[in-house]
Amino acid sequence: MIYQGKALSASFLEDGIAELCFDLQGDSVNKFNRVTLQELGEATSALAAAPGLKGVVVTSGKDVFIVGADITEFTELFQLPDEELREWASKANDVFNAFEDLPVPTVVAINGVALGGGYEMCLACDFRVMSSSAIVGLPEVKLGINPGFGGTVRLPRLIGCDNATMWVATGNQQKPDAALKDGGVDAVVAPELLKDASIDLLKKVIAGDFDYQARRVEKTTPVKLNDIERMMAFTTGKALVAQQAGKNMPAPLTAVKSMERNCGLNRAEAIEVEIEHFIKLVRTPQSNALIGLFLNEQGVSKYAKTVAKQGGDVKQAAVLGAGIMGGGIAYQSAYKGTPILMKDIAESGLALGMKEAGKLLSKRVSRGRMTPDKMASVLSSIRPMLTYDGFDSVDVVVEAVVENAKVKHAVLAETEKHIRKDAVLASNTSTISISYLAEALERPENFCGMHFFNPVHAMPLVEVIRGEKTSDETVARTVKYALQMGKTPIVVNDCPGFFVNRVLFPYFAGFDMLVRDGADFRHVDKVMERYGMPMGPAYLMDVVGIDTGFHAAEVMAEGFPDRMRHPFKGISQMMFEANRFGQKNGIGFYKYEEDKRGKPRKTEDDTALAMAAEAKQQTVEVSDDDILARMLIPMCIETVRCLDENIVRNPADADMGLIMGIGFPVFRGGALRYIDQMGVKAFVEMADRYADLGPLYQVTDSLRAMAANGESFFK
Prior knowledge:
The chain folds into 3 domains: 3-283, 2-enoyl-CoA Hydratase, Chain A, domain 1 (Alpha-Beta Complex), CATH 3.90.226.10; 314-494, NAD(P)-binding Rossmann-like Domain (Rossmann fold, 3-Layer(aba) Sandwich), CATH 3.40.50.720; 501-709, Orthogonal Bundle (N-(1-d-carboxylethyl)-l-norvaline Dehydrogenase, domain 2), CATH 1.10.1040. An 8-stranded mixed beta sheet has the order 12-11-10-13-14-15-16-17, with helices on both faces. Strands 1-2-3-4-5-7-9 form a 7-stranded mixed beta sheet, sandwiched between helices. It has a two-stranded parallel sheet with strand order 6-8. By secondary structure, the protein is of the alpha/beta class. 52% of the residues lie in helices and 12% in strands. Helix 6 (161-170) packs antiparallel against helix 11 (250-262), helix 27 crosses helix 29 (671-678) and helix 29 (671-678) crosses helix 30 (680-689). It has 31 helices and 19 strands. The model has no long low-confidence stretch (mean pLDDT 95). A hairpin with a 5-residue loop joins strand 18 and strand 19 (600-603). The longest helix has 24 residues, at 285-308.
């Protein structure tokens, strides 16, 4: 044994060839935490001193190679002053450099996921052999930072500046064929051949068949381009990256600028440039938000998987009500491997549901993501029917009929008679109380909400709503089914609108009040889109359906009359009364016509502008900052109320719900992260300036107490 630690070990395999194996004790994956980084340095020193060493093969003792850095540890480091953070980053890079400078050749066997620091470890090796089931990449920009262990230095020297720009700026995972084509790995082999192939390559390098020293010179010296060539290599790439990333995501362009500056330098100088840009990005609010989002997502996923373990098997599902929503649910279930019955009361509904599923599958085939045979197999696992035949073998039934309490009561009560006593019955209602709907059932403990967002195939969130009598087993099985469908479930407690819609409607109310006070709805849309929302509030209402929004707003007003019933007729109500429902009938705040691809194209409409003028009751000077504040304050305060009332489990669930459910900008991190970044005290002071607008703008006692105590939602 050359070296033995808690994260890795080194030992001789055969004459002169040592294996450096990453196998972090007590964890299911390998990652670069403090222990791993320290031990890599120690193991490298031990290898350098090992007598008779001729070469090193780097392997993993787990199903993955190295998933990346342990961001939970490194977030603490990011709080350090610049000089201390620079010193830490320099020492970390010294470890990678020392390994790269070993006096013998190195080959890495990439058996699974090798991302971020994991792939940077691969780049520090002389040669890379990749399993055909592995993935590699540098996804750091998705956390708002750039690679920090030499990734922007070594990658462009290996695969060229053009390719490196795309790899680093997109942060995309690279599959074996693409990685091999670009030069990010040297060979791709079947998983069972990986270790032997890597050792075989190492032996050939030792024998002199391949020049590893030349590889090192290439990685440690300036890129072989003159000044004009370097400028040309990056000019087009920077323009493309800036256009695609936008001004709210600085990491992609900053990472490319780091490569542009460092590619004319030697390794030591180039790494200093990388560290400089790394520290610059660590200090941005976007990095704070995106890293927080990553941690939130891990927490939400871990909780869902823990809950799902308590749920029974979901081998057969059913959906009530075909149409667009039912067809979308059926498609998602079948596509992810759970066969589903799709029941409707009319052949036309079933035809619409199957058409929706077929359309989504056809898109996958046309884009090369699915074979026609696979499409046929998925479609055949959706069984359209007008009766309850087969419902006695269903594990979960999702009701997706019209959003009408009386209709749902009748459908749920009838369905309960045709399913097993242990089957879960779930409603896809978006606003109606689960406890109220359960009143129609003999087994309310087996009933919960399962709120999908439209379009089902594209929206990742599912709200699993616990009613007053819902059992833990019912929640567990529903969460399990959501996970099987490839969705991210958050468990919330029952109230009008549940969590996402309850928080969304104060946002819409803020919009109605802005139009009432003379703001141009087109400009409000632009301000919110510049903030990062996928679409402004007027456009969003058109997409959701103004009629759907109006009926949901009535439910919210009944449930929370003190702040969600408004003493004026807003522009949204006026649109509804004029039968302007948005995209579904071609006219709302905007007018819609199909483009060449059959998608609705938005244009301005004079009638809508005239209606907005009619809705105006006064003219108030509002700046863009006022628009942002008046739109976001109600949403943020309602999110806090949901947390106070235990509607949502914790701040992580709340922010993830908003990001996945309504498209809150990922680089903002969510409503509670927005409050934290501003500072709770500053947010309360801002809200107080608008408090005369009504209860939606008046902060909770809990928030005021947090401000007084200097507290935050996230550490």
